[in-house]
Predict the structure.
Amino acid sequence: MITSANKSIISTSFRIVLFLAIFLIAAPVMAQKNRQPDKKPAWQGYHEITIGATADQIREKLGKPMTEDSEGLFYTISETETVQFLLDTGGKVRAISAIFSAENPAPPTFADVFGKFMPADAREDGSIYKLVRYEDLGYWISYNRMAGEKAMVIVLMQKF
């Protein structure tokens, strides 16, 4: 029996997967302008889980996922934080999507992700978006903070 809570979880999961799919298609084109081959990002992964980690390593750090299949694992960390790990055909992390709702008391800042020396390029409405390719590391990272005093923050990492 599907309860209203399960419908909400399924609906939220679907929106996250849909957003990630759209973003992953468009990101390589947008990333061509933002290359930082000689620097490392401050954000190396989610809770020490990095690109290339195995599903077993994820479970070891975060426990049992809310949902799991051969393509990925999805966790609800709290009411204000979710994370999804997409796996390659070898069962290793190829993408990480961490979403922090507007109600999250301490979402990552731009500096938490890219370091304090990279410019944030905030838009007039206060939103921030940046995608940087780290060629020497083999992945890109994006930071997206919606507009508003309290705003949703999405951090994505993906292997090339």
Remarks:
- The chain is about 25% helix and 30% strand.
